[in-house]
Structure formats: structure tokens, C-alpha cells
Amino acid sequence: MKNNGILSLGIFTAIASSLCCITPILALLAGTSGFAASFSWLEPLRPYLIGITVLVLGFAWYQQFRKQKATDIDCDCDEEKPSFLQSKRFLGIITVFAGLMLAFPSYSHVFFPQPELAKVDSNSINTIEFGISGMTCAGCEGHVTSEIQKLKGISELKVSYENGNAVVSYDPSKSKLEDLTQAIDKTGYKVTYQKTIER
Fold this sequence. Notes:
Blueprint: H1 3-30, H2 46-73, H3 88-107, E1 126-133, H4 138-148, E2 154-160, E3 165-170, H5 177-186, E4 190-197
Antiparallel strand pairs: 1-3, 1-4, 2-3
Helix pairs in contact: 1-2, 1-3, 1-4, 2-3
């Protein structure tokens, strides 16, 4: 397999390993939030994709250094300078890019706006917990948060992909329970249950 093919495989697996976390940000930028959960099925494959990426890039670096040792032995012939695509610099750029893609779930939350919560009378607040299926990373949390915070009367909001839920305090005179459910479903993740929390 040629070096460019190896690098292409490394880039592909690095992007695929974080695709479930990249699509919510692409959806936010495009304004089409419904397809954000389309790649959540890749989450269970993430460890394997990371492993493939590391192996492929490790092999590419091995090939690069092995090629260098072979050219050190042949010193009498005219040396042909490798192209940029076959250089260590390009391999370094690809390695850094792959590393950023692999780490994407850990910093994806910075791409989402922070919630701007309303100040409402505490006597008129309802608090409800929604079970949400399909969230796999902080990017998913940010996507659900950004959709819910578009509604009026939201005073508190905590979305957790680890717990698979969202706890929302809201003023029922400004937003209805159906509005909250629709906002979550609009992201592509699904509400699995609703539970009222007594204050």
C-alpha cells in the first residue's frame, strides 16, 4: 500500500472516530439540527477506529524512518528529493490533524454558545427531567442545550450525555412541555421519558 493510501486511511478513521461529535456542530452551523444524531451508531466503534488510526499512523512513521535509514546506506547515487506529500513535515501535519480529530469529543463543547437563562418568578417554575437517547459526547450535550435555550422562560438547564438526560426548569406561561419535547426531538436525539421534579 502506498504511503498516501496509508495516510488517507489514517485521516478517514480519525474523522470517523469523532464523526458522532462533529455532526452536531455541523448541524448547528448549517441550521439543520435534525441530522445531528445520524452518526451516533459510530460511538461503539470509536475505540476500534482510534486503534486503527494509531496503528496506521505508527506504520506511516515507521515507513518514513525506515526509508530514511535505507537512503543513508546508499550514499553514492544522486538523491531524489521526496515530494511534500512524502515528507516528514506532511506526515507531522496529518498526525497533528488526526490527534485533534481523536480528541474532538473532549473539547467540542466550546463550539456551542453558553446558555442565556431567563430570570423568572420562582413560584411559577416547573422542573422536569427528560430521558434522552442517542447522546454520546459533550457535543451532543451542547447541541441539545442550544436548542432548548432558544425557548422562552428557561431558568435552569442541565444536559448530561453521561446520564442520558436533561433537567429543565421553565416558566409554563412562556413555554409548554410540548415545546421542550419538540426542541429535543428536533436535534435528532429522542426523548425516552419525562418526569416532573417536585421543588
